Amino acid sequence: MRRKSRETRIGDILIGGSHTIPVQSMTKTDTHNVWETISEIHRLEEAGCEIVRIAIPDMEAAESISKIKKEVHIPIVCDIHFDPRLAIASIEKGADKIRLNPSNITEEGWIKKIASLAKERGIPIRVGANIGSLKQKPKSAVDALVDGVLEEVRILEGVGFSNIVISIKSSDVLVTISANEKIASLIEYPIHLGITEAGVKDDSLIKSSLGIGYLLREGIGDTIRFSITGDPVEEVKAGFTLLRSLGLRKRGLEIISCPTCGRAEIDILGLVRKTQRDFGNVVVPLKVAIMGCVVNGPGEARDADIGITGGNGVGVIFKKGKVFKTVKENSLYRVFKHELQKLVSKEEKSLNISDSFR
Ligand code: SF4
Q1: Does the Cβ of 297 fall within 6 Å of ligand 1?
Q2: Last residue of some domain: 224, 245, 266?
Q3: What's the domain count of the chain?
Q4: N or C: which end of the chain has fewer CB within 10 A?
Q5: Please, what sign has the CA dihedral across residues 64, 97, 44, 282?
Q6: Whole-number Cα distances in Å, 55 to 40, 76, 80, 90, 248
Q7: Is 46 contained in some domain?
Q8: Are residues 33 and 171 in the same domain?
Q9: Range of the domain at 290
């Protein structure tokens, strides 16, 4: 059962409570380079990203927030480290949420100013703990992370601010799981999930899916981000694949492809790649099977809305496990693409597109 967390608004997105779990990412561009940043956010939006974080290292970056906001369609989270002036400027320039640890700000006057402005604008503050920021090596990493977050929460609550989002991330999957389980049992604030510094795509997909997936399955987590050293679009794709695998979201094509074996008679990988290339931006949920042999393929993928297989010069298109069309093997992909396109258009018509994001 999903943990009951407090409902929180980030721009026009609601998180917490029983709201849909949005997929986040972070730009990798230099925020000073406004157009490069906008163009990266557009690519992320196209992939389905619903909340994006940008780094605000200095006042010039903070100044660019309003320009970026004018050109993009998803809420912007501004990442501030130590300088309270950057927090104030970010909120004034239109940030939909800021990420800031108040313990990094020594003067209480500044914390009060930030909290009061965030309150006035109705924007949340995300606080977090990171094992790297602790002065001494703790006896228990889990306790140290939880205590760290509780301290940040206490400071904000102390100045009357409670529009808080929590995040506890470690590069250690098991520590991240335990720390989030513990904090989830102690406070009601929504939790953003991720495994930090999870590495390049291959490593991050495993570490993040394990950590985030385990917690989501326990009902913990209100937003997610895969951290990947590489193109942030991959973070978004991975986020949706995970949520879809857990039955929490439906979006885009789910490609079921067999691992191939000695019975495979067609080029599975080539067909998967072509399908990803041609239908990667589809939003409506459809299950597509690409199977290696006629004997086992259609039966093994009987749940699929549409599928293909083939061999010995013959290509077979099947729907829900039943043969729908037999064509020459060399025209298999062309006919399949046409049939899949028809199915996508039909689904797009019958579904409100915004519903298919859920
Ligand atoms: S569908 Fe056919 S080729 Fe693919 S794994 Fe199963 S038996 Fe092997």
Answers
A1: yes
A2: 245
A3: 2
A4: N
A5: negative
A6: 13, 10, 7, 11, 29
A7: yes
A8: yes
A9: 253-357
Burial category of 150 from C-beta neighbours within 10 Å (exposed 0-12, middle 13-18, buried 19 and up): middle
Please report which confidence band the pLDDT of residue 265 belongs to, taking 50, 70 and 90 as the band edges: confident
Please check whether residue 3 lies inside any domain of the structure: no
CA angle 73, 79, 85 (to 5 degrees): 110
Three-state secondary-structure class, residue 277: helix
Query: What are 193's strand-pairing partners?
Result: 224
Probe target for ligand 1 pocket from 256, 257, 261, with the most ligand atoms within 8 Å of CB? 261
Last residue of a domain, one of 245, 276, 299: 245
In a domain, 1, yes or no: no
Ligand 1, pocket-test mutation among 258, 290, 295, 312, most atoms within 8 A of CB = 258
CATH code of the domain covering residue 344:
3.30.413.10
Question: Atom of ligand 1 at shortest distance to CA of 297?
Answer: 1
The answer to the question of residue 2 being in a domain is no
Please write the tens of the pLDDT for every residue from 231-247: 999 999 999 999 999 99
Are 339 and 302 part of one and the same domain? yes
Give the tens place of pLDDT for each residue, 48-100. 999 999 999 999 999 999 999 999 999 999 999 889 999 999 999 999 999 99
Residue 171 tokens read as 């590069």
263 and 191 both lie in a single domain: no
Based on the fold, state whether residues 189 and 322 are members of the same structural domain: no
User: What is the pLDDT, as a whole number, of residue 237?
Assistant: 94
User: For 99-156, how does the pLDDT look when each residue is reduced to its tens digit (9 = 90+)?
Assistant: 999 999 989 999 999 999 999 999 999 999 876 666 666 779 999 999 999 999 999 9
CA quadruple 243, 163, 100, 50: dihedral sign: positive
* pTM score, whole prediction: 0.91
Q: Are 88 and 113 in contact (CB under 8 A)?
A: yes
Which amino acid makes up residue 211?
G
pLDDT at position 356 is 43
> Are 43 and 191 in a shared domain?
yes
